[in-house]
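#random but structural
TW: two for the price of one
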Amino acid sequence: MNARREFLRGATAIGATVVGGIALVGCASSASLPPAWRPSPGEASVARVPVSIGGQRVRTIDVHAHCYIPEALALLGAAEAKATLPPVRGQQEHFIVVEERLAAMDAMGIDMEVLSINPYWYRQSRENAEAICRLQNEKLAELCRQRPDRLGAFASLPLQFPDLAVRQLEDAVRRLGLLGAAIGGSVAGEDFSEARFHPVWAKAEELGVTLFIHPQSTPELARRFKGNGWMSNVVGNPLDTTIALQHLIYEGVLDKFPRLKICAAHGGGYLGMNAPRMDFSCFVSPTNCNPAIVLKKRPSEYVRQLYFDALVFTPEALRHLVAEVGVGQVMLGTDHPIPWETHPVDHVMNTPSLSDDDRRAILGGNAARMLGLAS
């Protein structure tokens, strides 16, 4: 309890108001940002203008948006909690003030955000991991109940204890109304293809909910990522996702759970570029393949049953992703409040290879279908 008080005291010291365990933190002043990062005049306070294509209203859904829950972070102790927060612009905005988050969404043309919390609890004890995930799921549901038309959420799961993860996933979906679960790229370096995690994938398949994979860099390469440019994120995050997805494919997990819905952040890492190469691996080097695992399809075919966010930055990158995985598998993802993509609707609208039907699908239709939301 002392750790909790210490953390919440730190939150108030940076200008937060704590209500019901959720730190309500105002947005950073745009005056403190370099000119390239400042909103255009009036942008931060712009009234929401519904997105329309060909005279048809489009509900825009962002499946990749983040927050943190102070009560859960406090269970780590003040020092570890502080180290857990991302060293990025938008850090304070992870502590949601509903009105301010909605205003920021309006400025981006986003009708609905699906919130998630990047796993930081995979090395915690059973008791602490269970408490952290329980608190987060309760508070996420509390946020969503305030504006169910604008906010949804993926649950947090203590995946290092699969029996707990199964119980908390069912509770989060059936009792709290959450839309699935957010998971890392591995469980502290242990791959998802390990049999001990199969009960979690079976439960997700049974519930018909989405597992959103968000990477946590590739810690085995930490020494090589040192230096300029934040390579642990820029290179490590896409690599972590790629490894996770390739294990699910090559180890036959997607054959075992063919109805499992998986959505990968950051355009799925390098999978979209690498998928065709996968088809040749066991032909070129059969000694590096397990003859006991006989896949039902070519490796690249599994890629087209996965889902991906459109956080790939350029029209050409989005065109290529759609060409490789299919337009029905791609949807908006911003990483908000981290300012990787501040004009996500424009990104889709300005990709010339997309038809109007493609744009409607990516902006919201695909996410509504994947998440089981009313259209």
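TW: number two ↓
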Amino acid sequence: MNQSEQINELAAALSKAQSEIQGAKKDCANPFFKSKYADLSSVWDACREPLTKNGLSIIQTTFERDGGIYLFTTLAHSSGQWIRSELKVIVGKPDIQALGSSLTYCRRYSLAMIAGVCPEDDDGNAASAPSKTAAPQPNTDPKITTEQAMNLKKMMSGLPKDFVNGLLASLRAHPIFAHSIEAIPASKYEGIVTYITSRMEQKETQTNE
């Protein structure tokens, strides 16, 4: 089942909440896409107060089935009525950091969808318009060397996990398409090193203040 037997009270409360929900602010930068996006915190900030004010709450849980991991997002009302969505979590790499990154991504989209939150100045219309160029293809450039891969891993080991998870998620997407550190194209190595170095310097400055 994906909803309680009755949802009339929930629907009425959600209607009131959505009249107050604002667009989620795109306040996080993706250095590889050179764009901004609304992260999980921004989506929560956009809908938390209107939902709570109208007796609504969000519950997100995971479970395993047939070897896969699924995310349940439940919108519950104080009356006991509820609706639920189910989403399979796709993990590009079998490690806990990749899982955490994928879960955060799925939580963000599932929450936005069930609550009716849209990012401010959403560019969905542009994305759905007929493309004038060919779809981006996976990068086939030569990969970085084993030594370079070890250097990147060493650099990232001293940085916050949320930063590393975000970086790894960006590497897996266009234009890099690297599902592991070892698969990073050699042409992108220097740019990534520069970006990580700047983050390390920022971290050191904050520590010394």
